[in-house]
Amino acid sequence: MSDLDQVSLRPVTEDDLPLLGGMLASPETRAPFQWFGWSDPGKTVRTFEENGLLGPDNSILMVDAGDETLGFVSWRKIDVVHSYFWNIGALLLPEARGRGIGTRAQQLLVRYLFAHTPVVRIEADTEADNIPEQRALEKAGFTREGMMRSVVFRDGKWRDACLYAILRDDLTEAPAR
Asked: TM spans, by residue (predicted)?
């Protein structure tokens, strides 16, 4: 069985909070594309105590491969006129990157969200220079829809981002993998 066959998603437990908090607060783990400066270190624990990090507008699931926890995926609600869709993201530990685990985790998250929520659209965005994440999203079945100019402020500079989306019908039209 390969690493990718063992990738799974699960709710955050109290035992995950030190790892999760450390990942969110670590410039080294979040670098080079997701470090935006220091933020409230207690927010994750407070939100976990409130709703287990499974809220109606944003949520987090841990990414495991076998018995090893390698990161997390998240989603947040984007409201539009009379409807909403999800925007997803992923953060893996540096040693888990480049192995297809992020692609598989995002595929699992998409299937989960389409199975358990009525949305027809799931988006993801990534900095224009983040080529590995663009490849991961494309392998996960997302379609690149365009470039958003100067939407991310990181490291003293405004940066462009690529917008990706997958529609509910994209899953039914795609051959089984």
From this structure: none
- Rounded-to-integer distance, Cα 93 and Cα 161, Å: 22
Number of domains in the chain: 1
Helix (H, G, I), strand (E, B), or coil: what is residue 133? Answer: helix
Q: For residues 43 and 41, what is the distance between their CA atoms, to the nearest angstrom?
A: 6
Using CA atoms, how far residue 70 sits from 29, 77, 174, in Å, is 11, 24, 28
Nearest Cα residue to 56 out of 110, 119, 111, 105: 119
With a cut of 90, say whether residue 85 has pLDDT above it: yes
Total length of the chain: 177
CATH value at residue 48? 3.40.630.30
Domain extent, residue 133, equals 4-173
Coil, strand or helix at 75: strand
Q: What pLDDT score does 3 carry?
A: 63
Give the position of tokens 């003293």.
156
pTM for the model: 0.92
